[in-house]
Amino acid sequence: MANTLANNDKHMYKTCILYGQNADGMNNKDLSQFLTALSENGIRFYTRDDTPAGDAPALKLTKLFYKPHAHNQLEMICLLTGRLALGINARWVSRQPRHVQVFIPGVMHGEHFAAAEASYRMLWATVFPTALFFHITAYDPLIGYSTSTKRMAITPPMCAQLWQTSREQRFSHDRHLHAKFHYLLMECVHYSLTAHPDAQCGAADYHEQIIEQVKNYVVQYYWENISLKKIAGIIHYSPGHLNAIFRQAERMPLHRYINEIRLRQARNLLAGGNMLVKQVAQAAGFHDPLYFSRVFTRRFGASPAAMLARAKKKHKRQTGTARFPAPGPGTAPVKNLPP
User: Fold this and answer.
1) Is residue 17 pLDDT above 90, yes or no?
2) Dihedral of the CA atoms 146, 148, 149, 154 (nearest 10)?
3) Residue 309 sits in a domain of what CATH number?
4) Is residue 235 in a domain?
């Protein structure tokens, strides 16, 4: 492990644990156990085509924690204590290994206790462009299933590399990329545990961290098919809860913030004068040109076509040519949006 990463630039990130009412929530011991599993037991990647050998009859699993489902983002799990029946692509396995398991986007998964009298705790992790988010799911015979109200967010500097590695086109089946991801993940967790072993914060600080990560994500990926539901799924918040804390912090709902980012980027592209309105709409994340034209006109008081025509006319008057390069996606981050 690179100790220099753990000792330098500690001010560049924040480890944040949200305290809640659940005594069985997230803590640094869980994060340390996650790192131990990574280093001693390894990591296993599952794609939607993988079908592990099941040993738990699905017909007897009548009290699921949640209905088996798939996500559009990568997720990781690590069994901390106990035993459960884990569903992976319609196969149920009760003999869980102690290594970290990674679900590539599209993998169907579900949870069920292995025995009604046996408890378990399992750590979940998701990757954001500059952060890792952790929470716990659990089962106890006395209280049933639960999700921890105590959560953790870490933002080590190497997390951006981890995120980019997970988004490589060949990632799902490339062993070299898997090895790189494994190494970077260990670096991220080790950095967090070494730099701030006792880090903790209140709900307001954790929510501030969430909001900043969400805003950065939107600015970087506004042209993709992002939505409140998708972002909430990545950080394991309900869409309503995420929207509520975002509105409280930014004085606008998340969908409006996404639209504002896209509209301002569209205005930048139109100012270039070398793209069709339809191309600008697509590049800015609007898949319906008519909707784009309507909301753009409402926001700026002029239609995209009119703004494009003005840009061409202005540039032709200044240089004698009608077209010049426009900025590409993501080159002009939008900050300090109005309420």
Assistant:
1) no
2) -160
3) 1.10.10.60
4) no
Q: What is the DSSP letter of 38?
A: I
Single-letter amino acid, residue 153 = A
Comparing C-alpha atoms, which of 128, 123, 137 is closest to residue 167? 128
Res. 177: pLDDT tops 60: yes
Give the structural domain span for 105.
Answer: 3-201
Token reading at 122: 């399992």
Residue 321: per-residue pLDDT: 59
Classify strands 151-154 and 16-18 as parallel, antiparallel or unpaired.
Answer: antiparallel
Query: What does DSSP say about strands 75-82 and 151-154: parallel, antiparallel, or unpaired?
Result: unpaired
Q: What is d(CA 26, CA 245) in angstroms, rounded to the nearest whole number?
A: 21
What lies within 8 Å, CB to CB, of 59 at 6+ separation is none
- Say if residue 180 is in the same domain as residue 84: yes
In the structure encoding, which two tokens stand for residue 189, read together?
Answer: 């967790």
Residue pLDDT, tens place only, 202-222: 454 678 888 988 999 999 999
d(CA 109, CA 157): 30
Concatenating the DSSP letter of every residue in 126-140 gives EEETTEEEEEEEEEE
Q: Look at residue 123 and tell me whether its pLDDT is greater than 50.
A: yes
Strands annotated E in the chain: 16-18, 43-46, 75-82, 84-88, 91-93, 100-103, 109-113, 120-128, 131-140, 144-147, 151-154
Residues 134 and 271 in one domain: no
Answer with the residue of higher pLDDT: 134 or 66. 134
